Amino acid sequence: MIKQNFDELKEIIELNSWTKNKEGVDKNGEVFAKWMYELGYHQEIYHRDSIGNHLHFTSKSKEGKKLLLLGHLDTVFPPESFEVFKEDEAWIYGPGVCDMKGGNFVALEALRHVHKKFGEIDNIDFLLVSDEETGSDDSKYLSAELAQAYDYCMVFEAAGRDDEVVIGRKGVGTFFIDIEGKAAHAGNHYSDGADANLEASHKLMALVALTNLEKETTVNVGKISGGRGANTISPKAQLTFELRYTTIDERDRVLKEVNKIVATNYVEGTNSTLLGGIQRDVMQPFEAQAVFVERINTLCNIQLKTEKRGGVSDANIVASQGVPTLDGWGPFGDGDHTIHERASKKSFAERIVLVSQILEHFSEGAFEN
Q: Which segments cross the bilayer (predicted)?
């Protein structure tokens, strides 16, 4: 195994890049931009006021297929909570080593390999967004728009335990039902009230009943709030719930039923409003993606292991635009989103070699047909 130098990765790991730390996220982007400039990339900056800027690095464009590499600059750790980089013989530790500064580093090293071999890079671009860890509420529109210009996408979230790449991710939506009732004294004027809490309980049961575990569809009411006190009929309530699904058919089924539940008054005198929506649509395996996998297997003389995950990433966004997308090209790691986050040195080395091979074949035109 080639010994990898992680000094550059250490530099960005020690930069606090919490999503809400705009200064830190932008600094991370500036460091990365310096490395990309050395490879001949042009940078398009999408400036943002309250979050970090999104960065789109474009290579020289020529006739033929175009490949998008996709990553994110932010992490989940507020300043002074976890900012240490360390390593031992087998692992490196620190915020973002697998989620996903480490993945971005794999992409960078592979691009360096291509640049060294060919002297330039064509038709391989790199998008780094700044708000993935909070749901990509801003960047998802940009990612969806830019994705339409590409024929393939590789996303650099962490690999699976056995180096799996990700071919499917559940779609996710977050919703809120605001319920208006009518307050009344629970002792003297009970019948004059319209109990928002009671309405919420009926809606909660109806929502949870939409879960279909056989189809891996879940509806989870994760938070309920409402009421003033024990002696008052509740005038307001709110349900916060999440939908996760593996197919577009299930998404549409549940959304149709949710609208019916919201429109139904179980308690006379209440009124309900639905807020929220689909955050990232499903990454559903399809034929063109399978062809992408098979082409990699043939060209690199390997047999990629694949998996589906319940969690979401920006791969969902690009895949929902019809672009053959594979996720999990970063190193294997664990403990992500905790102070025990680590990534495997062996996996780093293997991923850099494999991604370099794929990008080399792409640069030689092997994905044109």
A: none
Closest alpha carbon to 348 in 52, 172, 135, 93: 93
132 is catalytic: yes
Start-to-end Cα distance in the chain: 33
- CATH number of the domain within which 261 lies: 3.30.70.360
Q: Are residues 203 and 92 in the same domain?
A: no
When pLDDT is averaged across residues 232-256 and rounded to a whole number, the result is 97
* Predicted pLDDT of residue 2: 54
Catalytic residue of the set 83, 131, 132, 281: 132
Question: Domain ends where: 280, 300, 330?
Answer: 280
Within a domain: 1: no
> Could you confirm whether 83 is annotated as catalytic?
no
Question: Under 8 Å CB-to-CB from 270, ≥6 apart: which residues?
Answer: 179, 180, 181, 182, 194, 195, 196, 199
Alpha-carbon gap, residue 71 to 322, rounded angstroms: 19
Q: For strand 124-129 and strand 54-58, is the pairing parallel, antiparallel, or unpaired?
A: antiparallel
pTM, full prediction: 0.91
Dihedral sign for Cα atoms in the order 6, 9, 15, 17:
negative
